[in-house]
Fold this protein.
Amino acid sequence: MLLSGNLSVEGLIVNLVVLLIGMTLHEFAHNYIGWKMGDPTPAQQGRLTLNPFVHINWVGWLMFALLGFGILGSAPISPYRMPLENRRWRWLAAVAAGPVSNLLLAAIFGLIIRLLGAVTLFSLPDIVSNFLIQMVYLNVLLCIFNLLPLFPIDGWQIIYALLPPELAVKWEQYRNYTTYAFFGLLLLSLLRIPGIPNIFSLLIGQPTITITQLLIGT
């Protein structure tokens, strides 16, 4: 799912700004909810801030702007530093907070677009209308991408937290295999070999488009 096919300089700038906002919010949400769930590390490391320099992996930021996938950043949270009581659900809340924050941001900007209406939206300067639309599209993309059940993506951790203990142990045993699958799919997406489908595009692209259309009302 390449974003760079017909990407203008203006479009690239919009993508970079939108992703700066979306990725910063994503990592902040992990850290903030992790802290609320009892892990003191985000506060100790100064992660309870919306300063992007604290959160973002800059190579991943550029990759997402150009290619539609990349490494967002890192949140120093761990279930083992959270209280034992309801630890599994505390961890689930902290991990799910990232993709949920992106979906909420997309929904807010989808509502703004609906309130503006198509006529007003496209009467705005191109860079403004593009920014509003990309705030929906790219945040939905961040949400969907991070729900993939492949380590080290959030989706793997979400499944891990949802599974009962005996199944979680088995899921943990296959962690490395899901990592290999992730990098294999990433490589296929980059190489775009004729005759081999782009699995990332199938898993992420169409759901992203569908949810974006639902949010903006087209």
Notes: The chain has a mean pLDDT of 89. The chain is about 70% helix and 0% strand.
